[in-house]
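User: Structure tokens for this complex, please. No commentary.
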Amino acid sequence: MSQITRPPEDTPVLAAPVRVSEASGRGRSISRFKQRLTPYGFLTPTGVLLVILMVTPIIMVISYSLLDGVITNKNPAFVGFENYAEVLTNPVFFDAVRNTLVFTVSSVVVHFAIGLAFALMLNSPLLGDRIKGLFRVLYILPWLFTVAIVAVLWRLLLSPNGVVNYLLGAFGVTDGQTEWLASTSTALAAVTFINIWSGYPFFMISLLAGLQGIPRELYEAARVDGAGAFKQFRHVTLPQLRPIIISMALLDFIWTTQQFALIWMTTGGGPIAATEVLSTFTYKLAFTRYDFSVASAAAVLVLLMSMVLAFFYVRHQKARD
Amino acid sequence: MSKGAYVGRFIAVTGAAALALTGCSGAQETGGGTADGDAAEGGEVTIEFSQWWEPELPDGEFRALMDQFEEENPGITVELLSGPYASTKEQVVAGAAAGTMSDVVGLDGAWVSDFAQQGAIADLSALMEEVGYDDSELASQVQIDGATYMIPVVNFVYPMFTNDTLLAEAGVTAPPATRTEFAEAAAAVTTGDTYGWVLPLSLEAPNGIQNDVMSWVWASGGSMLEDGQPALVDNPDVASATEFVQGMWEDGVIAPGSFTMKEQDKVEEFTNGRVGMMIDSLAHVNLIRESNPDLQFSISAIPAEDGYEDERGIPYASWGIGVAENSEHQEEAFKLVEFLMSESVNSELSSIANAFPGNVGSVPDFVEEDELFGTAFEIYQSGFPANEFTGLPVAEQLMRDFGEEFQRALDGQQSMEDALAAAQTKWEQEF
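Assistant:
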């Protein structure tokens, strides 16, 4: 049922409907405007935090890198790219770049290899649940220690009078007198080993989660096609883990290039410059030479290098999405 | 790709990459600003005192001294900002940069030159004159261009420690007094399980260059400076001391691991009876006794060059004190300095810190109560405190520069002569 009310004859017929439509139009546009603003409202707290915690420090460090004697000088002068030239003409900087690359690439590759091996073991149907639980706890232990504990622990273990030398000497592998962290020939390998030891669980846990997510049907189909264990690993496991492996590798690469505390607390960048990496190089410029401008220039160069990696990481993530 | 997508990608890349920058610049943000002295309200003044001393003293002892100061100086309250040495340093550096340094600051001699040049710490000579303070009681003052910027409150000297048992077993009946005797004793003690000497050369904490290398120069009356400028080249005192150390290295009498060894590792090696001799701070005597009560050890002066008969320099480290240039309460701040440097309070502080006093008239309790400290005090009084790194610009970096070149020489990558020349070049750049 419907009811139609005719307007009185002397009432302008179109006036009222026009006012209604204007009001409702305004309402709709306000509502549309609010709707468009809502997501930005939700983003605002994050945006503010990003500006305060990320953008501001980055801009400050970039501006410091263009000034002379910043912080220690009350009126620093603009010097353009002089600080960058100073960093790029310092031979120790290139030692640090080389050491950082060796340290990082070795760490990421071995993190991946050990992480994958242990993840495959923990995902294997050949082991019982209790054994798996025990190994899961044992394997993840290195990740639970803070860097300071890891550094102290390994300094003691690798000391010339430490347990490692004792065992190697007792089994006749070495003469038991190796100065692992104090010799220019072994120091970089030693700190890389420590970093590998403390970081592989990150890969292991991520890859284990990935392995547990691979559908059983894929392995069954591969078996039906006559694929053995190796072919199943090559044609099913690895392709299924590929997105996780790439993400983890890129993240690990970025994090490892920034490793500072472990190296500082074990070798301090020495002996001589055998373990000098970009982070220790930058720290020394800032906090022992108080040359914050040159240190900022070095930090910006590290930022640029990391941005290349970050770009690939973001592109990869976007491709996944 | 749409414009929005580009913007999104830029933000994501910048955010991810910012991890790198914050990683490198994070340390700059540490420390935190220390507020300036609180404004007086109703005649009350609060002064801030940032230092690393309180945590290193027995619980409550330093606060008790501050309570005593507050009682003697009504209207002045002392707020202690205490932390470990490293974080105090960062805090003071940040405070100096931001102009928010505490009114009174604990200082290490190695920092003074930089802070003075920065204009962050006050000229104490002017302050002393202003308040009519008699500085004749002060054992030493750290000066830059003739003006005092730091007063050492207590001093920790670095004599030679000898493991009596190891030396006796090796047929050495008395602590060595000359370099030749030291080398012979070190060789006699070295067996493969034990070593004659321990030399920490870590580049993270390069103070081994000051305490364990340059101490040989100072003990024979030598100097690494000439008219306040580096003098490492053509300097027979420095050359003979570094060649002496190199000789010990080549003889294999130095405990392994030197290149990354820190002071605490050195103390541990000695405490565990693995080395016969070390040069170390007197502050570690109690630690060694607590860690190994059975260890029989003595303290003596650092051996000098054969035939050297004059006064011996003995390295030291200080708990120094200074006043912030931008403090609104410099007068009150200096009252605290005066209080800590007064004869009785300085005796008390040096007693609880196991250190030697900065006031010439003060005598700490332990000197009379403990034979070992008594001997150390005699050594201290018979020689002169020597630390040429105090007051130099970027002193820690100078030690690190020298340490790198010294390590190269010991590692056989260059001669000691070249190492000294390279260190000299680096030092000249810093000066």
